[in-house]
Amino acid sequence: MGGFFCHFLALRNSLNPNKNKAFLRSEVSMAANIPAGIDKEQAFGMAETEMEYRVELFNRLAQTCFNKCVDKRYKEAELNMGENSCIDRCVSKYWQVNSMIGQMLSAGGRPPM
Amino acid sequence: MDKNMLAGLEGLPEEDKNRMSAMIDHLQLRDSLRMYNSLVERCFNDCVDNFTRKTLQKQEETCVARCAEKFLKHSMRVGLRFAELNSQAATQD
């Protein structure tokens, strides 16, 4: 099982070596510019929480768009053109929903009773 | 670690750099393990329905191989789009 897992990691990294690095960059620069009034420990904690949130967001996004866009019969190993377009659009819309809700939550404060 | 990642870390002292990069490695490992499990579950659910035999049939094996490859390619594509949207959002702030 260990051997298989290492093979899986190698395959995954070859397909997507910089996934986490690319989208965690903002957290890294956030930690580098610590605003006044917050100590270092808190800054690390916030950066870590933000990173975990981003990873979770990515995973849910990937699962959701796969479920919506990809035919489960797996007739071939490649993504066809239709699936590719669907994925791009799905990611874009998911992102927009994410922003909308982010804005609603930060503006409204608490949910309406 | 690649240079793009370290660019954001320039201002930090050595120990903080190490701490950040350890955090990122830890997250990356955890994420890989989660993906492994969820991929197995997904491909099993989508491809295996028949329990008259205890070994996988040829068609089930093919299905699982395609499922895994397709999901990994999909995940890569989503990663590209995600990074694009992320950097757009960062420049807008």
Automatic annotation (TrEMBL), chain A:
Which intervals hold domain Tim10-like?
44-106
What Gene3D superfamilies does the record point to? Mitochondrial import inner membrane translocase subunit tim13 like domains (1.10.287.810)
Q: What's the protein's topology in the membrane?
A: Peripheral membrane protein
Q: Does the keyword Membrane apply?
A: yes
InterPro entries assigned to the protein according to its UniProt record, in alphabetical order: Tim10-like, Tim10-like_dom_sf
The compartments listed are: Mitochondrion inner membrane
Its job: Mitochondrial intermembrane chaperone that participates in the import and insertion of some multi-pass transmembrane proteins into the mitochondrial inner membrane. Also required for the transfer of beta-barrel precursors from the TOM complex to the sorting and assembly machinery (SAM complex) of the outer membrane. Acts as a chaperone-like protein that protects the hydrophobic precursors from aggregation and guide them through the mitochondrial intermembrane space.
Write out the domain note: The twin CX3C motif contains 4 conserved Cys residues that form 2 disulfide bonds in the mitochondrial intermembrane space.
Q: How does it assemble?
A: Heterohexamer.
Q: What is this protein called?
A: Mitochondrial import inner membrane translocase subunit
Automatic annotation (TrEMBL), chain B:
GO MF, one example: metal ion binding
What are the record keywords, sorted?
A: Chaperone, Disulfide bond, Membrane, Metal-binding, Mitochondrion, Mitochondrion inner membrane, Protein transport, Translocation, Transport, Zinc
- What sequence ranges are listed for the domain Tim10-like? 25-84
Topology with respect to the bilayer: Peripheral membrane protein
Any one GO CC term of this protein is: mitochondrial inner membrane
Q: Tell me where on the tree of life, at the top rank, the source sits.
A: Eukaryota
Where it mainly occurs, coarsely classed, is: mitochondrion
Residue ranges the record marks as coiled coil:
none
Give GO BP annotations, semicolon-separated.
protein transport
Q: Where in the cell is it found?
A: Mitochondrion inner membrane
Q: Name the SUPFAM superfamilies on file.
A: Tim10-like
- Keyword check for Ribonucleoprotein: no
Q: How does it assemble?
A: Heterohexamer; composed of 3 copies of TIM9 and 3 copies of TIM10, named soluble 70 kDa complex. The complex associates with the TIM22 component of the TIM22 complex. Interacts with multi-pass transmembrane proteins in transit.
How does the record comment on the protein's domains?
A: The twin CX3C motif contains 4 conserved Cys residues that form 2 disulfide bonds in the mitochondrial intermembrane space.
Q: Which family does it belong to?
A: Belongs to the small Tim family.
Q: What does this protein do?
A: Mitochondrial intermembrane chaperone that participates in the import and insertion of some multi-pass transmembrane proteins into the mitochondrial inner membrane. Also required for the transfer of beta-barrel precursors from the TOM complex to the sorting and assembly machinery (SAM complex) of the outer membrane. Acts as a chaperone-like protein that protects the hydrophobic precursors from aggregation and guide them through the mitochondrial intermembrane space.
Give the protein name, as stated in the record: Mitochondrial import inner membrane translocase subunit
